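Students often ask why we bother predicting the structure of a whole assembly rather than each chain alone. The short answer is interfaces. A chain on its own may look different once its partners are present, and contacts between molecules only exist in the joint model. In this exercise we take two input lines together and write out one structure for the complete complex. Read the inputs first and try to guess which parts will touch.
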Amino acid sequence: MSEAQKPQPSTQNEWPLWEVFVRSKAGLDHKHCGSLHAADAKMAVQMAREVYTRRQEGTSIWVVLSKHIVASDPGEKGMYFDPMEDKVYRHPTFYELPESVNHM
Amino acid sequence: MSIASIQVGNKADVHYLLRIADACLILSQRLGEWCGHAPILEEDLALTNMALDLVGQARGLLTRAGQLDGQGHDEDQLAFLRDERQYLNPVLMELPNSASGNSRPGDFALTQVRNFGVATWLLLLWQGLEKSSDAEVAAIAAKAVKEASYHQQHAADWVVRLGDGTAESAAKAQAALALLWPYFNELFADDAVSAAAVAQGLGPAWSTLKPQWQAQVAEVLADAQLSRPKDSAYVPTGHLGIHSEHMGHLLAEMQYLQRAFPGGKW
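Now the answer. The structure tokens for the assembled complex follow.
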């Protein structure tokens, strides 16, 4: 382990960070709603219930260790996302929908 | 300006319900003392969420007790305007959050061990009250069963974490268990009030909850690697209105606002 990777004294006893996803009702997807610290997965689910579903926000909870989420590099934002700016033909807006199709 | 205290009558059904209502109310007050002082933010919310569940349960039962008492007292009057001897909660609920008497911060192990014992008891009690001959009580119980199930699971998890944790957490959990053990006796005390409640179909005699309580507690204590303290013959008398020295202090804080601003609402 290199010097930079070693846990710092102030944080080495801290519980890991978890990302919380809550499904508001059956049929909808789980939405990211925040994060919390917990010692393990079981505690993370309980704490997510306490912190993020107090006002009837949820019917289901997912938690995942924050360190397991791989994110795109903000520094590569331009290269990753800007080229899509002028590709309007990728939106399916040039088709005529039959009257009977309501929910598109 | 002060406001006169109210007195409830001697009807057995009213006393039976007040014992349970006051158990919820007074434990809720103790849990509320953790607000802003729990070891982690998430548990701070968990303890106050639980306190609010208990207040909700107490409100329902106080309202029903007030109706049966027939003097026109509502939940607020019953919660805030009785004198100490008129509260019928088991002494266990009024004990401070730590052996030293400090509540801010309290002893986290003591709080979780008490919550676990009480939630296990309340869950069994609510399950019995779901079959109450009193439709209102049955409805309150049906809602409370879900809340108590969660309270029991949450507290049991902590008891296991603490008992099966570090040497220090295990020692604190074991000390809390030793301190609280004799007070649990009161949760199974029977008398003429319970006999009347059974005869009337209002709810179970507390003593009938004991075998299941002991079995559930034994299971969690085993998981937590905590040893069951020796039984004692001591039965506290909170359910008869005779409390510990801590009750007066708790009530002074709990009743202050209603006494200073009678009928105050927000």
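Check your guess against this: The mean pLDDT of chain A is 87.
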